[in-house]
From TrEMBL:
SMART domains, per the entry: Lactamase_B
MF annotations from Gene Ontology: electron transfer activity; FMN binding; metal ion binding; oxidoreductase activity, acting on NAD(P)H
Protein name listed in UniProt: Anaerobic nitric oxide reductase flavorubredoxin
Residues annotated as domain Flavodoxin-like: 251-406
CDD domains listed in its UniProt record: flavodiiron_proteins_MBL-fold
InterPro entries xref list: Flavodoxin/NO_synth, Flavoprotein-like_sf, Metallo-B-lactamas, ODP_dom, RibonucZ/Hydroxyglut_hydro, Rubredoxin-O_OxRdtase
PANTHER family, A to Z: ANAEROBIC NITRIC OXIDE REDUCTASE FLAVORUBREDOXIN
Listed PROSITE patterns: FLAVODOXIN_LIKE
SUPFAM superfamilies (UniProt xref): Flavoproteins, Metallo-hydrolase/oxidoreductase
Source species, domain of life: Bacteria
Similarity annotation: In the N-terminal section; belongs to the zinc metallo-hydrolase group 3 family.
Source organism phylogeny: Bacteria, Bacillati, Bacillota, Clostridia, Eubacteriales
Protein encoded by which gene: norV_2
Length: 409
């Protein structure tokens, strides 16, 4: 064990300090990072999160120096990314009776990633509690911070929040606690927030709302420093930085529909923008002149074009508008294509081709995955027939993502 580090009586840090230049989403973390895992030595011993998959074996050896692994009753996985769940396969194989505690969307991911199909899971929801004998864990779902399945765990007796990626810093350190750090961690803390959390700031706001009434003496995240001094200051940084400061951002949704399905997509996008505080205008091109539409496009920060597909092409006069775009100065705007289709959905791809010829930033799935690691944002937004429940979620996510993009400083 790198050292025996205690947060409180019977709560141990059991993580790994990674002081390499750590590759991360096509960047390099030059200060390294840590993967913090915690052992709660309650009557029912519980591990919260694990370490990066590269250090699974070392993690097990370290943990064995503190506890007979057969005694572990629960393994809480707040977030499934392999820098935190990476030790789960090795741990579950040795802690044979341990029940894995996670949110519903995490179950299949963990089963597939670590071959845990026969394992017992305890699925928890917002506000559920778990008595681990002398300590009570409360679970709070924090979806999209920064992936769908994430939650945070709060230990009621010790007043410690275990938020995994949230409130982290990427800095390898051998001091563990912010009050012992050799230099102020605030700058690294803010850099981490901007890089990982800010693109999801709408969900940061929801998370802040959920934790605001908790008494938190210590924040034990899964990267970098454990915060036990000025705890509220660090929560306030998230609170302040996630507030919308720009109320004047605009989106315009321009569409041409055959039946009602593409119109429905436009309406759901509209809701997503409105919920994100964006002024949004929806224009069915049947009802507006080309000049009126082009004027709105000039004023907007985000422009979404949609069409149904008929005879393998767009319908109505949408193409007349798209043809104008390459001659306009639209720099600084983002644009995307959407539409409902029944067979191949060519119109959506043709719109995307037009967008690609403009000076607007064209949203597409590949770029989003490469730049953010998010796999649940889909552009062009292709919906087969009428939007179903899963589609509605996908459409809303697309609007929220676009909103965050234009709101980002
Ligand atoms: Fe630190 Fe999202 O993993």
């Amino acid at each position: 064990m790198e050292s025996r580090v205690m947060l409180n009586e019977n709560i141990y840090w059991i993580g790994k300090i990674d002081d390499r230049d750590v590759p991360f989403h096509r960047l390099t973390l030059t200060k390294g990072t840590t993967y913090n895992s915690y052992l709660l030595m309650a009557e029912k011993p519980t591990v919260i999160d694990t370490v990066d998959i590269s250090f699974g074996r070392e993690f097990i050896e370290n943990l064995k120096s503190l506890i007979d692994l057969d005694r572990i009753e629960y393994i809480v996985i707040n977030h499934t990314e392999p820098d935190h769940s990476g030790g789960l396969g090795a741990l579950a194989a040795r802690a044979k009776k341990a029940i894995i505690v996670c949110t519903e969307p995490a179950v299949n991911e963990l089963k597939e990633m670590y071959k845990l199909h026969d394992r017992k899971f305890l699925v928890v929801k917002d506000g559920d509690t778990l008595d681990i004998g002398g300590k009570t864990l409360r679970f709070i779902e924090t979806p999209y911070l920064h992936t769908e399945e994430t939650m945070v765990t709060y230990c009621e007796e010790d007043k410690i929040l275990f938020p995994c990626d949230i409130f982290s810093t990427h800095a390898a350190n051998y001091k563990y606690f912010n009050d012992l750090a050799e230099e102020d961690i605030t700058e690294d803390f803010i850099t981490y927030y901007k890089l990982i959390m800010h693109p999801h700031r709408r969900y940061v706001r929801e998370m802040i709302g959920k934790i605001k009434d908790l008494e938190i003496d210590m924040i034990a995240p899964s990267h970098g420093f454990i915060i036990r001094q000025d705890v509220n200051k660090f929560i306030e940084i998230y609170d302040e930085m996630s507030k919308n400061t720009d109320k004047d951002k605009k989106a315009v949704i321009v569409y041409s529909a055959m039946g009602g399905n593409t119109r429905k997509i436009a309406e759901i996008l509209q809701q997503g923008f409105e919920e994100s505080g964006i002024n949004v205008e929806v224009m069915n091109i049947k009802k507006f002149s080309k000049e009126e539409v082009l004027e709105k496009i000039k004023e907007a920060d985000a422009v979404l074009f949609g069409s149904s597909t008929r005879y393998g092409d767009m319908i109505g006069k949408l193409e007349d508008i798209l043809k104008e775009l390459k001659n306009m100065n639209l720099e600084g705007k983002v644009a995307a294509a959407f539409g409902s289709y029944g067979w191949s959905g060519e119109a959506i791809e043709v719109i995307q081709d037009y967008i690609n010829t403009t000076t607007m930033k064209a949203l597409n799935t590949s770029e989003i995955i490469k730049s953010t690691g998010m796999t649940d944002i889909h552009f062009p937004l292709r919906i087969r027939f009428s939007p179903k429940e899963e589609d509605i979620k996908k459409i809303k996510r697309a609007a929220i993502f676009t909103s965050e993009l234009i709101l980002a400083p």
